[in-house]
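Q: Hi! First time doing this. I have a protein sequence and I read that you can turn it into a structure. Is that right? Here it is:
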Amino acid sequence: MTKDVILSPLARADGSASYTSNGYSVIAAINGPVEVQRRDEIPEESAIDVVLRPATVVGGVRERHLESIIERTLRQVILVSAHPRTLIQVTLQVIAAPDDSNASNLLHQSASNLSLLPILLQSSMLALLSTSLPLTMTFTSTMIAVSRSGELVRKASGKALKEAASLHVLAFSSLGELLLAESEGSFDMDIWDQVYKWAEKDCRMSDSGDLAQTDDVDMDVSKSDTLEDSLRSIIEEKAAREYRWKES
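A: Yes, that's right. Below is the predicted 3D structure, encoded as structure tokens:
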């Protein structure tokens, strides 16, 4: 993940991050806490406003749906009680989509919004890390596609996405909790159980470190490949840069 991440690329935002994955590139900007209009004021918490801007077209119903999912997820992560009667603004700008002609317009031509969702969630989490907002936890998110033959695919794109029997986006907190599970398509509980195990191993490393095989699900993923470990390394690099002046 590290090579596809730039923290604080925007000088005038309170926090920002650029994230590239699976053919998508997204810039996230966060401002807040700022003054909120009285009609949107929440007496004991911060209000969170998420705005998603597509790369080439005007946002519509699908973007509003993704915004609501992201807002609900971020509300579980941000310590909203620390700044009551304020607003936290989250802006997500899609800079690039996959080169494949079918995938580039996937967000608007298909019934699925899920291919972009994990990139938006990861971008939001990274931008939060560059702010001074208090957080209760961090999280990582991934997408698993299931082909019509029942094969599970990580980082599916293009034709594989279009022909998938089902798509699943899951997000896990740093505490091991399942924060988000969004699925589309046709699948049974056996498929869901496999998807859950794949997504958990993709996002998080078990305490025992045994990743090679879980029940009937085989995955060739090392500890250094997990999203949680990549996120941890980004946090460590950020802390090292910020405290470097103390060593000079």
